[in-house]
Amino acid sequence: MELFRLFITSLMPVLKVLLVIAVGLYLATERVDLLEADARRHLNNLVFYVFFPALIGCSLADTVTIKDLAALWFMPVNTFISCIIGSFFGWILVKVTRTPRHLHGLIIGCSSAANAGSMLLILLPALCEEKSCPFGQSPSCSLYGKAYASLSLAMQAIYVWSILYFIMRSSANHKVNVLNTNETRIIAMTSLSSNDCSADGLHQIDMPQTDNRRKEEILTFEKAKQSFMMVLRSNSLKKIFAPSTIATIVGFIIGIASPIRKALIGDSAPLRVIYNSAVLIGEAGIPSITLIVGANLLKGLRGSGVGPSLIIGIIAIRNILMPGTGILIVKVAKNWGMVNSDSFYQFTLMLQYAMPPAMNIGTISQLLGTGESEFSVIMLWNYIVAAFSITLWIAFYMWLVT
Questions:
Q1: By the 8 A CB rule, do 117 and 53 touch?
Q2: Helix axes 322-335, 372-401, angle to 10 degrees
C-alpha cells in the first residue's frame, strides 16, 4: 500500500511534464506552426541565455551556504561517475551492434549524458508540490530541489561540451576522412615531393643539425600555440563557460558571501527588487524548455535509418542499467561516508541516473552535421519509455530512501 501511494505521488509530476510536452509537440505541427524551427531556435536562445541563468543563479543563491557546499561536493562527482559508466555501456553497445563509425559518438553520448538538469528542474519542484511528498514541506523542498537540479545542469554541461563534444567530433570526422582518404594521400605525397625538391629543401640539407633542430623547435612551438588558440576559440570551450555555468558560479558566490546575500535576499534586503526580478524571469525557464522538448520530438515521428537494435539498446541502458547502477553507487557512497543521511539528497543522486538522454546532444549533432535525424528518433522512443520508467523509478527511489 505504501509503495502504491508513492507510485501515485511520483505519477503526478511526470503527467504534468507529459502534458506540457504534448502541447509543445502540437504547437510544432505544420497545422499550428507556432514552434517551427526558427521559433524553437529563438526560444531556445532565451532559455539558454536568460531564463535558465536567472533560475539557476537565484536557486543556488537562496539555498546554498558554506555548510551546504561542503555537503554537496559528491553531486558533481556523481554526475561524472554516471557519465563514465554510461560511456562504457555505450561503447559495448556500438561494438555489439556494429554501429557505423561516424555514429559511435552519438550512441556513446545518448548512453552517457542524461537530461539531469532541465528534467530535474521540472520534476523535483513538481514532486515537492504534492501533498503526499515524503520529503517535507513544499517551500523548502522546492528550493533545495531547484538547487540540486541547477548544480546537476552545470556539471552536465561541462561534460557534454568538453569530453563528449570531442568524442562526437572525432566520430563525425571519421566519415569525412574515409571518403577522402585517397585524395588526402595524393595531396600529402605531392606536398612531400614538392618540399623535397624545392630549393629551400636543398639548402636545408647542407645546414648543420643544430639549425635543423632549432627550426623544428620553432615549428613545434608554433603548432602548440595554434592548437592552444584554437581550443580557446572553440565552440566547446564557450559552451563550457555558458551562461548557466557562470550563473552557477555567481549563485555560489552570493550564497556563500553573507553580506551580499543579506543585501539581495530577504524581506528586509535593500536590493531585494533585483533578486525578485531575476526570480520572475527564471520562472519562465521550466515551461519554455518543456515546450521545446515536445517540439523537438516531432522530428522523431518522421523516422530515420537508425536500427531498432540501437534504439532498444539505448532504452535498456538509460531506463534499466543506469538507474540500477545509480542505486549501487549512492548506497556505496553513503556507507563510505561520502553522502549524508538527507533522504531528498540521496533521492536526487539516484534520480540523476534515470533521466533520458540530454537535449544538448542534438545541438552538437547540428553543429557537426551528422546524426541529427538518428538522434531525433532515439530521443522520441526514449522519452516515450521514460514517461513510464521515470514514474516507476521515482516511486522505488522514494520507498528506498524513506
A1: no
A2: 40
Residues found in the chain = 402
**Please, which residues bridge with residue 276 across strands?**
none
Domain boundaries, the chain: 2-174+232-401
H or E element, residue 33:
none
Give the model's pLDDT for residue 302.
67
Low-confidence ranges of the chain (pLDDT < 50): 1, 178-179, 181-184, 186, 197-207, 228, 232
What digits encode the pLDDT tens for the residues 211-237? 555 555 556 656 555 654 555 455 555
CA 47 to chain centre: 14
Give the chain's radius of gyration (CA, Å).
25
- pTM over the 0.85 mark: no
Query: To the nearest 10°, the Cα dihedral for 268, 271, 276, 281?
Result: -170
Burial 15-24 (b: 16+ CB within 10 A, else e): ebbbebbebb
Q: In a 3-state reduction of DSSP, which class is residue 26? A: helix
Helix 74-97 with 343-351: angle, nearest 10 deg: 30
Q: Which of 35, 20, 16, 14 is nearest to 299 (CA)?
A: 35
The DSSP letter of residue 1 is -
Of the candidate CATH numbers 1.20.1530.20, 2.60.40.420, 2.60.120.260, 3.50.50.60, the domain formed by 2-174+232-401 belongs to: 1.20.1530.20
For residue 136, what is its C-alpha cell?
Answer: 517535507
Position 62, amino acid: D
Which three cell numbers, joined as nine digits, stand for 265?
Answer: 535576499
Q: pLDDT (tens digit, 9 = 90+) per residue, 299-336?
A: 777 666 678 888 999 999 999 999 999 999 999 999 99
DSSP label at 31? T
Q: How far from chain centre, in Å, is Cα 276?
A: 28
Distance CA 170, CA 92 (A): 18
